[in-house]
Design brief:
five-stranded mixed sheet; about 30% strand; alpha+beta; about 30% helix; binds magnesium ion; Dna Ligase, domain 1; binds adenosine-5'-triphosphate; single chain
């Protein structure tokens, strides 16, 4: 069964709880939602705690990560007045890998049944990179006797059922470390979701998902990318570079502390230059100096000169990864920036120039009970997780049936929500 617990084999009901955890490089966020009348979810508990256990999206200090997870969950539970056991978990790092495989199943002229689909969803371990764990198996499109573009083939007749399956996996070590930290907090991972997928669910509008759009989540230690097309996630990637790297560059470049660099970045930072930058002076506290008068006065252009090239490099990397993926065209002309670091002034303009696409800033969709402080772009992944849990709660039953079924093995370890994609 791998890391996953048993899925609840019943459908969503009034009063049920949904709990999610986004383990980010700078913070861990835990949201608890309750299913209200009419099936809508209301957030009844939420908390975010500083995370010192993760660097560039991967756990580097198990104890620190466990402490951050434990306190985020406890604080959210206290607020909700409930105790949770299982959670839906996301992280942006862990080296997600994305590949699309083509599968064909002989159906000998009869109508396509659930069993045929299960057969088609049997994943060949050779299709996954070595030392990786499968996170999502998303049917992108079905075909019957070569007729592509079928959304749900059940009940249709043909000889050969074809399927294009998008497999998302992450490095086994990274996932195992995260699962261990969570288990040590006496919690169970119901399923993993890759963070850019969750962020896309929170930020993209339906038309963007259908027509093709790319969500770029600029986090603290990662920049993760999700491409959506025809309502499905077709590609994900993650770079181990984020806002913390910009802060480090500033601290090094202006010889100041990390704390001062973070402040300078959020107060005066900009991703694009302006003619006034040379005239505007900013105070840079000297390292180890307590007296505020003992600071350097430097032109703002020096700060912008550090931030801009780093962010430019990040977007150039994103562009080349998208081009190499083959999903560049499918991704359409639309980019949505989110994540805490998307709050940098001028970032939209810089992204537009480097990526040559239409760029907008994305905040997570509103949800009842979502506080102002947690409605910013840093919480896109957490909000998206909750939306995902809400939408597919009933489908957990299907996953558990599949686990018990003949497919077993790899499929049994699927953290995905198979039915959602039909
Ligand atoms: N106003 C701002 N301007 C620029 N950057 C900002 C601003 N506010 C926050 N940030 C940056 O956002 C980053 C944190 O973003 P976020 O909370 O999305 O990361 P995370 O989810 O913890 O990390 P990751 O997803 O990379 O694992 C930090 O590097 C922080 O400096
Ligand atoms: Mg994040």
């Amino acid at each position: 069964m791998g890391f996953y617990g048993r899925k609840r084999a019943r459908s969503k009901g009034n009063g049920d709880l949904l709990a999610v955890l986004d383990v980010g490089t700078t913070k861990v966020a835990c949201f608890i939602g309750r299913v209200a009348e009419g099936g809508r979810v209301r957030i009844i508990g939420l908390s975010h705690q500083v995370n010192r256990g993760v660097k560039a999206g991967s756990i580097v200090d198990m104890e620190a990560a466990e402490a951050a997870i434990g306190s985020a969950v406890t604080a959210a539970e206290d607020m909700a007045g409930e105790t949770i056991h299982g959670l839906l978990v996301s992280m942006a790092g862990g080296h997600p890998s994305s590949r699309t495989v083509g599968i064909e199943v002989d159906i000998a002229g009869h109508a396509v049944s659930d069993a045929d689909i299960r057969q088609a969803l049997k994943i060949d371990p050779d299709d996954l990179p070595d030392d990786s764990e499968l996170v999502h198996a998303i049917p992108v499109t079905y075909a019957l006797d070569g007729n592509r573009g079928i959304r749900d083939p059940r009940g249709m007749f043909g000889d050969t059922l074809g399927l294009e399956l998008h497999l998302v996996s992450t490095a086994s070590g990274a996932m195992r470390n995260l699962a261990t930290c969570i288990q040590r907090c006496h919690l169970q991972v119901d399923a993993f979701v890759t963070a850019p997928y969750a962020s896309g669910l929170a930020c993209l509008v339906e038309d963007e998902m259908q027509l093709g759009a790319t969500v770029i989540d600029l986090g603290g230690g990662t920049t993760s990318v999700g491409v959506f097309f025809d309502g499905r996630l077709v590609f994900v990637d993650s770079l181990p570079v984020g806002g913390a790297h910009v802060t480090n560059d500033i601290a090094r470049g202006l010889t100041t502390s990390i704390t001062a660099a973070e402040r300078l970045k959020t107060f005066y930072g900009s991703a694009v230059t302006s003619p006034a930058d040379d005239r505007e002076l900013i105070d840079v506290p000297l390292i180890g100096e307590r007296d505020p008068d003992q600071s350097n006065h430097v032109p703002k252009s020096l700060l912008t000169g550090i931030i801009q090239p780093r962010l430019e490099e990040v977007f150039e990397l994103v562009r080349s990864r998208l081009e190499a993926s083959g999903f560049h065209r499918v991704a359409g002309r639309r980019v949505v920036l989110t994540g805490g670091a998307s709050q940098m002034q001028g970032i939209q303009e810089l992204a537009r120039t480097v990526l040559d696409k239409q760029v907008r800033l994305g905040r997570p969709r509103t949800m009842p009970g979502l506080a102002e402080a947690t409605s910013g772009p840093a919480f896109s992944a957490a909000v998206g997780l909750l939306a995902h849990a809400d939408r597919h709660y009933a489908d957990m039953a299907v996953v558990s049936r599949l686990e018990d079924g003949p497919a077993g093995g790899l499929l049994g370890r699927l953290g995905g929500w198979i039915r959602e994609y039909l």
